[in-house]
Amino acid sequence: MRKKIELEYIFSSSVKVLFSRLSTAAGLSEWFADDVIQKDGKFIFIWNGTEHPAILVDQKNNVFIRFRWEDNENPEEYFQFSIQVHPLTEDVALLITDFTDTEDEADTIGLWNKQMDILHRNLGA
Fold first, then answer.
1. Contact at 8 Å (CB) between 26 and 37?
2. Whole-number Cα distances in Å, 17 to 25, 38, 46, 83, 117
3. Are 71 and 84 in contact (CB under 8 A)?
4. Cβ neighbours of residue 97 under 8 Å, at least 6 residues apart?
5. pLDDT by residue (tens digit) across 42-96?
6. Which neighbouring-strand residues pair with 46?
């Protein structure tokens, strides 16, 4: 059974700088994958020499970007990066939405935590 997970991470970064790390091949290759190639609405994420193509489903600049793995047969599943600024504190929050098998939930969250550590270091935030 697949489960939707939603995670939130706080950054000390401008929305524009953070969004560039979430929405461009160069930005994503800094923290998310070994390399990323972007062409024609498709992002090809490369880990250990293996390509994993994803389709850019939707995007609103400096607000969110949503991808769907090309080999995922369930059109309802995606992974999304959303940015929200908390009105009282002005904290910039990155919200991640992903889907995982129930038995892999802890591993998936651990992987996102590791990736967020890398992103924090790269942004100095």
1. no
2. 14, 19, 23, 11, 16
3. no
4. 4, 5, 6, 78, 79, 80, 82
5. 999 999 999 999 999 999 999 999 999 999 989 899 999 999 999 888 899 999 9
6. 35, 51
Phi–psi pair at 110, nearest 5 degrees: -60, -40
9-38 pLDDT, tens per residue? 999 889 999 999 999 999 999 999 999 999
> What DSSP assignment string belongs to the chain?
-EEEEEEEEEESS-HHHHHHHHHSHHHHHTTTSSEEEEETTEEEEEETTEEEEEEEEEEETTTEEEEEETT-S-TT--EEEEEEE-TTT--EEEEEEEEEEGGGHHHHHHHHHHHHHHHHHHHT-
Distance from C-alpha of 61 to C-alpha of 49, rounded to nearest angstrom: 30
Max distance between CA atoms of the chain, in angstroms, equals 44
Reported confidence tier of residue 125, pLDDT bands at 50, 70, 90: low
Q: Please compute, for residue 57, the number of CA atoms within 13 A of its CA located in the half-sphere on the CB side.
A: 15
